Amino acid sequence: MPKKYKRVLLKLSGEALMGSQPYGIDPVVVETVAREVKEVCDQGVEVAVVIGGGNIYRGVAATAKGMERASADYMGMLATVLNALALQNSLERIGMSTRVQSAIEMMELAEPYIRRRAVRHLEKKRVVIFAAGTGNPYFTTDTAAALRAMEIGAEVIMKATKVDGVYSADPVKDKKAVRFDELTYLDVLQKGLKVMDATAVSLCMDNDLPIIVFDLKKPGNIKKVIAGRKVGTIVRGKR
Fold first, then answer.
1. CA 8/CA 198 separation, integer angstroms
2. CA angle 48–196–133, rounded 5-degree value
3. Based on CB atoms within 10 Å of each CB, which residue in 46, 47, 207, 214 is the most buried?
4. Model-wide pTM > 0.90
5. For residue 139, what is the domain's CATH number?
6. How many domains does one find in the chain?
7. Residue 106 lies in a domain
8. Is 2 within a domain?
């Protein structure tokens, strides 16, 4: 299968790693993601990954219950490190070379985030997994994904979710929800669509970085997106 993109950033939500479980990490899902990443890497694509932590700890939810926001967000960042290490383990067990870079320094577990080092790892065909968000409270892992994608020169953000694109409403709760094939950044911001948070979308808009939202559960979707086939919803400057 031909490839359209040479360097991509894959954004995985923590919830996507739960599979059918109510919380935590489903090893089968992580292994499936690892194998699909390996397939595209074997085609010569350079892949970086940003993972959320909502399957383990969600800072916003804790804040709603009275916890101070900065503390809750730091706890959420640590949850992303757990997910990053799980994915790293699955990738290395199938023969991939990887590096985890954390925005919060923890030398025994991961490298500190250094942009030039991350780019060099990608050039050497290593999968780079960015953990701990931006390292700052009040910023989501969506924003971290947009920031890291631009810093490493990724050509697209591939946002892997539990649904097959962007809908006008939650398709689980509203059977009349309409799926969009294409959207502009302004469409997303003005309609308040749940693609990525407003800060992340604004960053992508300012730098003309496309976002493709697709279903992680469907086998082969990562490879199809890399090949430029129509999968899910694409968000970009012009339709």
1. 21
2. 50
3. 47
4. yes
5. 3.40.1160.10
6. 1
7. yes
8. no
Tell me the three state secondary structure of residue 236: strand
Q: How confident is the model at residue 6 (pLDDT cuts 50, 70, 90)?
A: very high
Residue 60, pLDDT score: 67
Alpha carbon distances (Å) from 212 to 24, 108, 165, 182: 25, 34, 8, 9
Q: For residue 209, what are the domain limits?
A: 7-236
Which of 19-28, 62-71, 83-92 ranks highest by mean pLDDT? 83-92
Residues with Cβ within 8 Å of residue 196, at least 6 apart in sequence: 11, 140, 142, 143, 145, 146, 157, 159, 188, 204, 211
Between CA 98 and CA 82 the distance in angstroms is 15
The tens digit of pLDDT for each residue in 191-215 reads: 999 889 999 999 999 999 999 999 9
In a domain, 1, yes or no: no
In angstroms, what CA-CA distances link 79 with 100, 118, 157? 14, 21, 22
Kindly state the tokens that stand for 29. 């899902």
Q: How far apart are CA 45 and CA 8, in angstroms?
A: 8
Residue 104 CB neighbour total at 10 angstroms: 18
Q: Which two tokens stand for residue 134?
A: 């931006």
What pLDDT shows up at residue 88?
98
